[in-house]
Design a protein that fits this description.
The chain has helices at 22-35, 49-59, 71-87, 96-105, 118-127, 151-160, 174-183, 215-222, and strands at residues 6-9, 109-113, 136-138, 167-171, 186-190, 207-209. Strand 4, helix 7 (174-183) and strand 5 form a beta-alpha-beta unit. Helix 3 runs parallel beside helix 5 (118-127). The protein is built from eight helices and six strands, in the order E-H-H-H-H-E-H-E-H-E-H-E-E-H. It has two domains: 6-19 and 90-222, HAD superfamily/HAD-like (Rossmann fold); 22-87. By secondary structure, it is an alpha/beta fold.
């Protein structure tokens, strides 16, 4: 393995606990659009929140009337609300500051790539005093498609101008693992976030940890 010198992080479920009300948000989006005249199966059966957002992007170019063009606006507005709701409860995982500070002191490049919107992320980073930690920050507002699409990771990689073989992405969901695979970088899965385990996922992570503190061991082993 090449020397790891860059660590990209997901946010919710990785650096902070997972507080987003997924089922409520999905139900509200579908109900709101249904009340606006759209079919309840617009996004298919049992869609995930990332599928809803990405599908909304696809529908916009096809919109032929003013009402249809509001699909993405409705979805984004509802997602912003649930971001803000989660923000009121987010707490840093134990050892998060310790890990970030040690990596920073060891000259690792650090980045944040999250499906959360910019407004909530900036408030959260200020709240937890993380505003100066990251060399690059990519939020929902910086991409057209959310993870598991690799767009956000690719954008971060381009901004950092770094070799993909020297980068690991730390996340807590199947979407994170899949996005890392598609971006051609290493993946580190943190157990206990959005998805409880990875054994049922299509793509296995390169490394699995049960606490963010174990990331330091991974980085040490990768560079030994």
């Amino acid at each position: 393995m090449n020397r790891i010198n860059t660590v990209l992080f997901d946010f919710e479920g990785t650096l902070v606990d997972f507080q987003w009300k997924l089922e409520e948000a999905i139900y509200e989006v579908i109900s709101t659009l249904e009340n606006a005249g759209y079919p309840s199966n617009l996004f298919g059966i049992n869609p995930s929140y990332t599928h809803i957002f990405n599908k909304s992007i696809e529908l916009v170019p096809c919109a032929k009337d003013i009402q249809s063009s509001k699909i993405l606006s409705i979805v984004s507005s509802i997602f912003d609300f649930y971001d803000s709701d989660a923000l009121t409860r987010w707490q840093l995982h134990p050892h998060t500051m310790e890990v970030l500070n040690e990596l920073k002191e060891d000259s690792f490049k650090l980045g944040l790539v999250t499906n959360i919107g910019e407004r909530a992320i900036l408030k959260a980073l200020d709240k937890f005093k993380l505003s100066k930690i990251f060399d690059v920050i990519i939020t929902r507002n910086d991409v057209t498609r959310l993870k598991p699409d690799p767009e956000g990771l690719n954008s971060a990689i381009e901004k950092l101008n770094e070799n993909t073989k020297k980068i690991v992405f730390v996340g807590d969901s199947y979407n994170d693992i899949e996005a890392a695979r598609k971006a051609g970088i290493f993946s580190c899965y943190l157990v206990g976030g959005e998805n409880a385990q990875t054994k049922n996922s299509i793509t296995e992570a390169d490394y699995e940890i049960t606490s963010i503190i174990h990331l330091l061991t991974y980085c040490s082993l990768a560079n030994s």
